[in-house]
Design goal:
- With 280 residues, this protein is of the alpha+beta class.
- It is elongated, with a radius of gyration of 29 Å.
- It contains 10 helices and 10 strands.
- Helix 8 (152-160) packs across helix 9.
- It has a 7-stranded antiparallel beta sheet. The protein has a 3-stranded antiparallel beta sheet with strand order 1-3-2.
């Protein structure tokens, strides 16, 4: 029960034209979001079936809605939801109603799903790493820190741009990098081919598990058969302060002290080369 005083207070609170307009705008935004929410558009299997049928191109209403096993009033309601959300566009040619799919209306939903999928993939990787380390308590890891007179963006590019990678990613001052391939996305592949002075090539590949420009990279490291560190994990943190960028490389999940020492030596030489790139 609302008292007369409370009712009077409520009336006073919206008596200002500005307050009333703000209230109406808030209500309009809320209702508009609910109506145009792409997730609502794809929430029902009937509407998803309609979208699938329009995936091959525009079609008449009859072609899109035939054999769906629901009444015409229900079909009309489902089509209205799709049209209100902008997922489906209706075109009138004479007396024929044709429907066309508007994929742009689903971009927000697709972007959100991709972002959540990447998040869950990282979470699963973290759980997997935890379980692996618990099952193999004697795994080794090491950590290397370097600083460079460069921006964090430049350092990030040095680790992700194939042209720059070929200038430094090799375990020796007189070695070279014959090939470098980067597919910079979670699940994307990294491939580096180093070549020593005798022409012998050493190939290593990785699969990215985290990509956060320009501050973080992580990948599962795979080498050639019997190469130290196959299946181990690398984590790179990049932090810039006053034009100086700090790089912390952590390489974990290594099977023993010898493997850790071998890979640490290789990384130290590579990072020495990177320092020379920025010093030029």
């Amino acid at each position: 029960m609302i008292s007369p005083a409370a009712a009077q207070a409520d009336a006073t609170s919206v008596s200002s034209p500005r307050t009333a307009l703000n209230l109406l705008f808030t209500i309009w935004c809320t209702v508009s979001f609910m109506v145009n929410d792409p997730f609502r558009a794809v929430a029902h299997p009937i509407r998803r079936k309609m979208i699938e049928r329009l995936g091959s191109g525009p079609a008449t209403v009859g072609e899109v809605t035939s054999d769906l096993g629901v009444s015409k009033p229900a079909i009309t309601k489902h089509l209205k939801v799709l049209e209100d959300a902008g997922v489906v566009i209706r075109q009138l040619a004479g007396r024929t109603h044709r429907l066309a799919l508007n994929p742009a209306a689903l971009i927000d939903a697709v972007t959100w799903v991709d972002r959540q999928r990447a998040l869950w993939e990282r979470m699963f990787d973290t759980v997997e790493d935890h379980l692996t380390h618990r099952e193999q308590p004697h795994m080794h890891a090491f950590r290397i820190q370097r600083t460079y007179q460069a921006s964090s963006e430049a350092v990030f590019d040095a680790w992700t741009n194939p042209e720059v990678i070929r200038r430094w990613w090799h375990a020796g001052d007189d070695w070279d990098t014959a090939e470098a391939e980067v597919d910079l996305r979670v699940g994307g592949r990294l491939r580096v081919v180093m070549r020593d002075t005798d022409g012998t090539e050493y190939t290593a590949t990785g699969v990215y598990t985290l990509v956060e420009r320009p501050s973080r990279l992580a990948w599962i490291w795979h080498g050639e058969e019997d190469q130290a560190g196959t299946g181990s994990s690398c984590d790179l943190e990049i932090t810039e302060h006053a034009g100086v960028t700090s790089v912390v490389l952590t390489h974990g999940g290594l099977p023993g002290h010898d493997a850790a020492a071998e890979l640490r030596e290789g990384w130290e030489l590579c990072l020495d080369n990177l320092g020379k790139v920025f010093a030029r």
